[in-house]
Amino acid sequence: MKIKLITVALLTALGTTVTVAADNDIAALVEQYIASGFKQGEKQHTERIVQDETQKQCTTYRNKIPSEMQKAFMERERATIKYPESGKLSGNWEQGQKTFTDGFAWRVGTIMPDKPDAVRGGNCYACHAADPKEVAAGNIGSTLTGYGKLRGNTPETIKYTYEKIYNSNTYMPCSSMPRLGHNGVLTPEQIADIVAFLVDPESPVNK
Ligand code: HEC
């Protein structure tokens, strides 16, 4: 019995050492494969896969940032937010609807490579429902149907919604929602139009 227990302990100890070493090797190998997979595209594609401090932390902590680190994390994200020059955080809902729906959010590859000055969409329907008439809606994110009806279009709701879209990690560390303003997918004005699409009583989201 005693011998058996020792053997198990020894194997477990050995197993742990071996696993850690293999993990490191695998991580390096994964990085190598990912990097080589993006070589054919424009230079920006290889730049895009380099992790910033936030992404590194999310990888290290497997998307669960320790509670004592969360405040600094979210403050760092908030500091990236830029606002429209007009100061208006809610713009034109009809334009916002187009941008929300446009699926060309951030193209990689060689067929239709994204250009730095391209006008991009948000591809929000990939993850969210919004206008109830849109049938091709994803459900990775919560439904946004009735968003303004539920929350009103108060300055607080507008500010929160703008900041959430600009940099989702400001409110939730390691969110699976892209940081659309921070990453330069959408301009501040485009985000303000999307905010209007979500909060305006005239928008189909709230009908
Ligand atoms: C890859 C999936 C994904 C995409 C694309 C995406 N989101 Fe999200 N979104 C999420 C997830 C997941 C959450 C919930 C977690 C969180 O709060 O970060 C969320 C949360 C939100 C919230 C907060 C909802 C609440 O109840 O407070 C808003 C607003 C929002 N998204 C708007 C948008 C808009 C607008 C776009 C397009 C510009 C968009 N999202 C694109 C995944 C996505």
What does this structure look like?
The protein has 207 residues and is mainly alpha-helical. The protein has 2 domains: 2-72; 78-206, Cytochrome Bc1 Complex, Chain D, domain 2, CATH 1.10.760. The protein has helices at 2-37, 43-48, 53-60, 67-78, 93-101, 147-151, 155-166, 188-199. Helix 5 (93-101) packs across helix 8 and helix 7 (155-166) packs across helix 8 (188-199). The chain is globular, with a radius of gyration of 22 Å. The N and C termini lie far apart (71 Å). The structure holds heme C. Residues 100, 122-124, 126-128, 140-142, 161, 164-165, 168, 172, 175-178, 180, 194 line the site of heme C (HEC). Heme C binds next to helix 7.
In a nutshell, what does this entry contain?
This protein has 207 residues and is an all-alpha fold. The protein has 8 helices and no strands. The chain has 2 domains: 71 residues; 129 residues, Cytochrome Bc1 Complex, Chain D, domain 2, CATH 1.10.760.
